[in-house]
Amino acid sequence: MPNHTPQSPSQSSPVYETLERWVRHSIQGMLQSVLEEELKDFLGRESYSREQTLDGRPGRRNGHGKERRLGLSCGTIVVRRPRVRDTNEPFESKILPLFARNSQEVSNLLPELYLHGLAKGDFELALRGLLGDSAPLSRNSIDRLRAKWSFEMKAWSKASLADETIVYLWADGIYVKAGLEKEKAALLVIIGANIHGDKKLLAVSSGYRESKESWLEVLLDLDRRGMKAPKLCVADGLASFWAALAEVWPTASEQRCWNHKMVNVLDRLPRKLQAAGKEMLREIVYAPSREKAEAGRDAFLAKFSKEHPKATDTLNRDWERMVAFYDFPSTHWKHLRTTNIIESPFASARLRTAAAKRFRNVEKATVLLWKLLLVAEKRFRKLNDPEKLVAVWQGQRFVNGEPVPTPIPTVEVTR
Q1: Which residues of 111-135 are buried (b: 16+ CB within 10 A; e: fewer)?
Q2: In this structure, is residue 265 part of a structural domain?
Q3: I want to staple 65 with a disulfide (CB 3.0 to 4.6 A). Which of 44, 81, 338, 392 is the partner?
Q4: In what order do the strands lie in the sheet with 186-194?
Q5: Exposure string (b/e) for 276-299, b if CB count within 10 Å is 16 or more?
Q6: Domain around 90
Q7: Among 18-22, 201-205, 335-339, 377-381, which stretch is predicted with the lowest mean pLDDT?
Q8: Has residue 10 got a pLDDT over 60?
Q9: pTM
Q10: By the 8 A CB rule, do 202 and 266 touch?
Q11: Does any domain span residue 8?
């Protein structure tokens, strides 16, 4: 009877390593075969045939170039690029560009490794461990990559947004540590949701979070790139952002982030009352209607206003901006109450940048964290019930999350 006893880790490791080697060897053979097929297509005949093709194309095979190491997500493989001579144009592989060293998957992995707090020295060691000791990396690889990202970011920040219909917009300022910077700098980040429910990174710019001028510059740039006014903007309580928004897109509705509001309110309550206060605030935030949210607010004011007026004043301040989300579909409320869409991708990055002054200046931090967000964008979840975004964009009114029937205009008949 066969033995189905599970293998111990020590027994299974050699099997796993053997399987990895087999996978790399198979990929290497397949890639080499594809290169040979590319050459055959380029010459229009079998690689070693000296006959010209019917269309008169010259050229013949001329052995192989030097071994090339290519980093893949499963390890490092070695291939040799076929060479030709007597051709009108050089042979260049489409799957293995002339200067390729790493696959796109590996390139996308690099900012992920930064996200986990790897300093430059650790970075190379981590890639060696991931790709093997023969991984095609020099000590300057990351510097060259960062320069490439800087160029890519400049092109990205100038791309037209005229074809994007952005229904909702989230804005937040994320502080970063920059070793040589004396001023308190922030990354001003804007993410939007288009009419299909896809979340898109729209802007990453260094500036000053408390400055109206910084936010105005970011919003005006989006406007110049062809972006139309969104229907709702979500941000924290900084007056600078709301003042800038009013100048650029005055028709957009305004929703303040409830996470920031709750933190501000609870900070003004004594520690022993914060648990009770937090429970009451959560009932307000998740109330099924504007009226019930206001009833919850009034209950909070009645309980705490006498002894803790700073907490109740903070809750009541700017109230209309706290409940704007009720004028939009209820299935979208979970996305519209907070700026979590921006906060979540930065949660780990903020811890790392606070722990080590890895960034010598804000510009380098901006490029790196832009790349980080761009990688994270691929994993952004679509908005719930995206079909309703068309109705929102077309001006459909909602009350407490439900659509309001549009009245049919009456036509007076004259006699």
Answers
A1: beebbeebeeeebbeebeebbbeeb
A2: yes
A3: 81
A4: 199-207, 186-194, 166-175, 232-235, 253-256
A5: ebeebbebbbebeebeebeebbee
A6: 13-100
A7: 18-22
A8: no
A9: 0.69
A10: no
A11: no
